[in-house]
Structures are given as C-alpha cells and as structure tokens.
Amino acid sequence: MAQDQSQPLLRISGVQMRFGGVIALGGVSFDVGHGQICGLIGPNGSGKTTLFNCISGIYRYSQGDIQFEGRSLTNLPRHQMAGIGLGRTFQNVALFRNMSVRDNILVGAHNTAASGYIANALRLPVVRREQNDADRRLHELLDLLDLRQVTDTPAGAIPFGWQKRVELARALMTRPKLLMLDEPAGGLNHSEVDELADLMRRIRRQLNLSILLVEHHMNLVMRVSDKVVALEFGLKIADGTPDEVRAEPEVIRAYLGDTQEEDEHAGAA
Amino acid sequence: MRNSWVTWVFVLLLAIVPTAVFSGYHLFQLTMVVVYAVAILGMAILVGFNGQISLGHGAFYAIGAYTTAILMTTFDVPYWVTIPISAVVCAGFGFVIGLPALRLAGHYLALTTFALAVAVPQVLKHRWFEDWTGGVQGLVIDKPDAPFGLPLSSDQWLYLFSLGVAVVMYVLAWNLVRGRIGRAMRAIRDHATAAEAMGINLAMVKTRTFAVSAMYTGVAGSLGAIAVAFVAPDSFSVFLSITLFVGLCAGGAASIPGTIVGAVFIEFVPNLADKVSKAAPGAVYGVILIAMLFLLPMGAGGFLSGLWRKAVGSRMAAIGETRPVAAGHEVGVGVDLAGSLSTADPVHARRGESVKP
Questions:
Q1: Given an 8 Å threshold on Cβ–Cβ distance, is B356 in contact with A92?
Q2: Quick one: which of A25, A138, B29, B275 is 20 to 30 A from B163 by CA?
Q3: CA dist., res. A75 & res. A262, Å (int)
Q4: Which residues from chain A sit within 8 angstroms of residue B308, using beta carbons?
C-alpha cells in the first residue's frame, strides 16, 4: 500500500443531517482505515443509508465534515467522486438495463480515460489505447466475478444475483480506493451470501482497497468486517471489532430489544 | 471484423447502383431518403442513445438549410463549403438550446423543443432578417453540376454527393456511439444517478450530445436545401419536426441502421398513402403508421435486436440449469424482463425498470 498511512482513508466527523424537523443523523463520527473492511449496521431508520448518501454526495449534510484522504468532500461534485477513488454500488441495483454486461462494466472505466467527442468520432489512436486498457481490466473483472457467460447479454435480462455482481464489477472498474457497498446481500440466498463474503475478502486482498459495507445481514457483517460501527436513531452506539460490538449492551438492546417488534427486526436481519 | 467490412462495402456499392438505374424525380426521392436518414441519425443520437426527447429537430434542419442558402446566395460560397460551416453553426445552436434542456426532462423537454419548432418558421419570415432570408418568398439556389467534367447529370451528382457526406456522418456516428462517449450517453439514458457515480459529468455529456445531434440534423438541412434548390419558411413547419420524429420511431430510436428504414418510411409512405386514397391520404398514412407500430413496436431496429434477444434468452435459461439462481422469483424477473425490455426504445425501457424485484 503506497498511500499515506498517517491519516485514515475516510474520516467522518460530526455529520448532521436533517429532513425538515427530523434529525436523521445527529453528529456521527468514525474513521475507515486503509485496507479495512468497515461494516455499518443498525436497525431500519437508524441512518445507515442516509450516511451512505452523505458520503456519496447524494445528500448535502448540514453540519460536520467528511474527508477522503484528508480532502473534504463537502463541495465535491458527484461526478468527481469516482475520480478521487470512491466507488459505490446501489441498494436496489442501478444497472444500465438496456446495455450489455460488457458495456455496463466499461462505463466504470469512464473516469480512467479522457478521450472526448472528436477523438472518439475519429477513433484516434488514443481511443484505441484507452479501449485496450479498459478491455484488459474488463477481462480480469469478468473472471474475478464469474461473469463470462453473460458478457453480451443486456444487464436487465440476467438474474438479480448476477446483476449484483455486474454492479460490483462496474464499481471496481473505476479503480476505487474505497468501495462503498449499500446492502450487497439484499435479495441474495444463503449460498450467495457465503460467496459474497469470500468475494469481498478476495477483492480487498487482490485489488488492495478498503470497503465500507452498509448491511442488514448481521452474520455477513460480523464475518467479514475488521471494524463495525453501529447506529441507532442517527447516533453512533458502538464502534470497534465485531466481537466488541457484539458484546456492547446498547447494540444488544437495539437489535434484540425488549419489544416484540424489534425482535422481528433482528429475526429479519 | 472483416465480415462487417465486406458487408459495408457491399451496402455502399448497392447504394451507388440507383445512380445508374434511376433518374429525375425517383433519384431525387432517393437523395431525400439519404438527407432524412442523416437528419434522423441526429435525432437517434439525442433521443435514442441519450434519452433526451426532442420534438423540435425541424428547427435545426431549417437552420442548416438557411445557413447553406444564405451563404450560397448572399456570399457566393460554393455549395460544398457551406456544409462544414452549417455543421458548426448548428452545433452552436444545439449547444445553446441544450443548456435549458439540462433542467428539463421527458415531456417537458419535448414541449420546449416543440416550441422551438413552432417559432423558427416565424423568425425566418420576420422582416429583420428579410434581406438575408428572402422573407416569405424564401431563396432560390443554383443546382450544382457534377465537378471535374464527370459525365453525370445534376441529379446523379447530388445523389452521390449527399451519399458521400452521409457515409462520412454515419462512420463518425458509429465510432462515437460505440466508444467511451457513446457508453456515457447510453448510461445517462438508462440511469443518470448511477452514471454520475461512475464519473460521468451529466451536464457536459448532455449539452455536447445536443450539439452533435443538432449538427447532424443541420447538415441534413444543408444537403436538403441543395437538393431541393430552394428554401422557404413554410417548408420547415412544425410538421417537419413531427415527420422526423415519426421516422425515428419507425426506425427504432437507438438503432443506427434503423435510421435508414425511418428515412425510407417518411419519404415513401406519404406518396404511397396518396396513391391509395387521393381523398384522405392523411388517414391512410395514419393507418400505415399504426400498423407499423403495432407490428414492430420498437421500430425496425428494435425488431432486429429483439430477434437477437430471443437467442440470448434461451442462453439465460441454460445458465439457470448449470447454476442455481437464488429464489424462484428472480428467475421469473429475468424472463419477464427479457420479454418486456427494449434496447431500442427508452420509453419502454423505463417501463421495464418498474418491474424490479
């Protein structure tokens, strides 16, 4: 890892987010280190996805700061996020449904190339070079994520579990330093969740990146994370290794709770 | 790769044949097919590939036509020099009109561009510009003769000239849409938020695509003006914009070969309708159009890619066997989408998106 290790990769400090009178995030702070897999957990409505959207620039937080490699993300345009090394997937899969799997993944290479309209229309040598580079990485990712069989199929026509892998490949194509996954296990069955856990560890090792994982699936989070942050009602209630967080009374109360309704939540998770 | 080259050379040779076979009015009609094809190609780049709906491309066609006519009559510029100038002028107009388009989507954008199409003929008639535009009378331009003493009639030369320009435009468009920029355009069409997260600058791609689209339709206008040898405001009424849109839908919005089918449709179907019924050609045209959209709901291009998808669909079933795919409903979604999705038509695509699990 060649990065500057003196500061965390992602630093979230005192982030507040309000929707009208509702406080969705009440000043959340934590760090994600280099090469770390950080799990973000919490019951429904605890602010996980809100925080995720604050980091990726969908929401503009009202107070606090988010820094990536020491650089504030507060006023960074959304289309520059990929360029500085923030890759993401979406909760309900946001693929380009009419485009082939190949083209979906190649869109991820957009920020790693620079050729414009005229260069493309004339198919200048620079375009060919970029295309060769993108194709080489495409093939690596097709192998890594086992997508060879569907390369030329429209992304909207393949099964949901496969679509999730396409989305992951597309995010990896942007060459992220931090890969942000929004509920990657949602809609997957048991064996697919197991595969996902292996895959995440393999990706981290092979591609040398950090992962921020927002997930309902407790088992998955506890299995793959180096560090877990738990939220409830927009506040951080625990922050530490999976074992520490599991033992935290606040977390046990939030998840296992004392009411029947919360019990069902834990069961669903 | 080699195969596709052979195909293209064959198509090109086939396109040159009419010069020898047809003459006069029939050749002129084919010239207009080529002209409309380029105009529809411009719309396909914007509507089909980028998902921005325009009902006002007749305006860019008119601007291109008038640019050429004014340059030829007022400034004595040779006809072939007016083409690149017209391209630049129309790209400029397209870029400027693309700016408000950033804040408008779907039918709002369609209405705004429609207003443009309504306004342009009136502006062309306005007395401020009368010295240049010739007002209501329009401008008559000289029909160019074949250069270098080639033994071709004026009609034959115009056909070949238009064909040559069109071939260049098609090659450039093909290169554009299959590369990095084309992928960015289609990504914005399919899912703007995800496209942005991949590092695509939405505003930049949308305005530039608008400019490219206007440039194509404007160049078509220039070629059309030279072929007809006359421009007048009423040739570029709202109806022209609608006609181009019909051609786009008939060809299949996101299909480059489909634009040629669309051009054939808008050039010949009105004539056909006229032959069927002198009394109500509009009604016949309407029936043919409805029949066409009923039989090929995604246009000619959509029909072809639909055939391809059927082949792919059977392959997906095979994958389901070799590898267990989650719960049953997910397999169902795959099949569902294969049946209802369209590569060609963004409107259908959006409908497909609501069928999420």
A1: yes
A2: B275
A3: 38
A4: none
ipTM value for the complex: 0.87
For residues B199 and B344, membership in a common domain is answered with: no
* Whether residues B225 and B337 fall in one domain: no
Domain identity same for B227 and B156:
yes
Tell whether B186 and B316 lie within a shared domain.
no
Distance from CA of A141 to the nearest CA of B (A): 16
Q: Which domain holds residue B310?
A: 302-353
What's the gap in Å between the CA of B51 and the closest CA on chain A?
12
Q: Does A129 touch chain B (CB under 8 A)?
A: no
CATH number at residue B231: 1.10.3470
List CB contacts of B192: < 8 A, sequence separation 6 or more. Answer: B202
Residues B124 and B230 in one domain: yes
Domain shared by B59 and B141, yes or no: yes
Interface of A with B in 197-216 (CB under 8 A): none
Considering only the beta carbons, identify the residue of B200, B312, B342 that sits closest to A153.
B312
The H helix count followed by the E strand count for chain A is 11, 10
Give pTM, 2 decimals: 0.83
Kind of pairing, strands A178-182 and A210-214? parallel
Across the interface, whether the CB atoms of B254 and A98 are under 8 A apart is answered yes
User: Which residues, numbered 208 to 247 in chain B, qualify as contacts with chain A under a Cβ-Cβ cut-off of 8 Å?
Assistant: 208, 212
Chain-chain contact of B316 with A150 (C-beta, under 8 angstroms): yes
Q: Give tens-digit pLDDT for B153-176.
A: 888 888 999 999 999 999 999 999
How many distinct structural domains can be found in chain B? 2
Instruction: Identify whether B255 is part of a domain.
Output: yes
Q: Name the band, by pLDDT with cuts 50, 70 and 90, for residue B40.
A: very high
Q: Are residues B134 and B260 in the same domain?
A: yes
Residues 31-70 of B with CB under 8 A from A: none
Query: Is residue B318, in this structure, part of any structural domain at all?
Result: yes
Dump pLDDT digits (tens) for A242-256: 988 888 888 888 876
Domains contained in chain A, CATH given: 7-85+178-269 (3.40.50.300), 97-175 (no CATH)
A139-157 b/e (C-beta count within 10 Å ≥ 16 → b): eebbebbebebbeebbbbb
Handedness of CA B245, B249, B250, B253 (dihedral sign): positive
- State the smallest CA–CA distance between residue A205 and chain B in angstroms: 23
Dist. CA B227–CA B25, nearest whole Å = 11
CA–CA separation, B152 and B31 (whole Å): 15
Q: Is B119 on the interface with A (CB under 8 A)?
A: no
Q: Is residue B8 part of a domain?
A: no
| Distance (Å) from the alpha carbon of B147 to chain A's nearest alpha carbon | 27
